[in-house]
Amino acid sequence: MAIYTCGHTTPDSDSICSAISLAYLLNKIGREATPARQGEVNPETQFILDRFGFTAPELKTSFAGEEIFITDYSDRGQAPKDIDEATIVGIVDHHKLGDLTTSAPLECWIRPVGCTNTIVKEMYDYHKVEIPKEIAGIMMCAILSDTVIFKSPTCTDLDIKVVRELAQIAGIEDFGALGMEMFKVKSAVEGVPVRELILRDYKPFDMHGSKVGIGQLEVVDLTIFDAVKDELQADLDKLREEEGLHTAALLLTDIMKEGSEVLVSSSDASIFEKAFDKKLENGKVWIDGCLSRKKQIIPFLEPAFA
Amino acid sequence: MAIYTCGHTTPDSDSICSAISLAYLLNKIGREATPARQGEVNPETQFILDRFGFTAPELKTSFAGEEIFITDYSDRGQAPKDIDEATIVGIVDHHKLGDLTTSAPLECWIRPVGCTNTIVKEMYDYHKVEIPKEIAGIMMCAILSDTVIFKSPTCTDLDIKVVRELAQIAGIEDFGALGMEMFKVKSAVEGVPVRELILRDYKPFDMHGSKVGIGQLEVVDLTIFDAVKDELQADLDKLREEEGLHTAALLLTDIMKEGSEVLVSSSDASIFEKAFDKKLENGKVWIDGCLSRKKQIIPFLEPAFA
Ligand SMILES: [Mn+2]
Ligand SMILES: [Mn+2]
């Protein structure tokens, strides 16, 4: 039985690229594997796949009876609905430890680094498998994406070292330029429905019993949102109602100015305000230096719900 | 702040030895670490520590405000009571993925192998740290203990390879003989109170809402229990009542005959009987080939509670 490698719901580039890079590795060490994805490919990821000649992994949302090697998450909120009927044979991830459990031993490669693909690189080295040029390319792009070209506080020395190694294998001389090109693709929001923008990189959380949903958009210039900010705010209210969320938020991250404007819709905004010791103005606040949802939002917001 | 390395409640040799071997490794890579233990040292472990010149790690049951690198478990049932007030910086384990969660990224080295110390060896290799002779000795003994000298179905080729490497480092020519010596120490039950025997290697589980406790005693000859079996059975009933368990069981494992007699006290024994498709006789049943609680008991018993 083939193992499916698959990342989280609303897949980002790391989820898609790690599914591909991990599946290749597993096949090389004699474990039949097929990459999959739980949702649509976003424009940034499509750019990466096109750049290195890959097609998107198979779309798959049901895994009952299958073996799955999870990439880029470890919580039930981001898993397929029927994950309890699947066998989780492994997890490779770089987030906090989530609430997935298993009934049999498995392998977990979880590290506090900037990107899952940095850890997949460790797995290639452990198994002494050579990384093909194209696979190295998509792994490198995923790391540049997750670490916001090394600017994110989640970025570690290991991420930088691995990008340099992968760039060499992929034959990319100026990976910084490729990263910027990638983020420009990511910044293309014109004509995109606001709901699609909110959900493009959206993660649901269970914070001590309260449902919280947080999206993030990383762009090279925040002014592109000026015309749609009110619309985004209104749609956050709508999303919160539809999904029964306590709080819905959207991070508009300016990777050049290195900070995020956070749009917040909440049934009790004081929780958010206390968590960050900041007052919202018309449901918005600028948080200077904030680039990472994982490291600069979740660890402060979650305890505020305790 | 020093990191505490610490295994599960009712520590076995793997929990104690991995706390020591991991702490040494962390110190070597510049992370101050102190080994700890959550409970008394059992006779087998004491034999190992004496054999290689170690004293037992510090007894510590409260970790509020501390950093902890967990070894040999990943579920709350085996964690310190105040684990939520500690920061889990890492987990190295070889069991099914438990229900511990964290609010920040961490490192997890979890593998489906026979012993945590096999994975700690992988960590030494990853960090290119040389293993001292004495540390290699206790790591080797822990693997021989957890894998029942390679007889357990949990034992993998990697465990065997690592034992050979560690034996070489430790300068032990006949590791099989040392293993048998160790299991003879483990088999010494004369004069030990029955409750102490039940709890010597005891693990609590939450099986779909039902509390289940399972102890295991591995000996070289089962007849040593003949005189105390009734007393053990009566004390299992008592333990079940005291702890509000649905089921309390004790595996009497004969490592030479390669099987286990299981003593069961249950508020509904039919669950156990269905799980293993066997009838209990006077609350007892022999399961041929059963050496591993983790691999041959839990994966069958847990689904029966679903
Ligand atoms: Mn990621
Ligand atoms: Mn163990």
From TrEMBL, chains A, B:
One of its GO terms (cellular component) is cytoplasm. The keyword Cytoplasm does not apply. Residues 179-305 form the DHHA2 domain. It is an enzyme of class 3 (hydrolase). Keywords: Hydrolase, Manganese, Metal-binding. It catalyses: diphosphate + H2O = 2 phosphate + H(+). This is inorganic diphosphatase. It comes from Candidatus Marinarcus aquaticus.
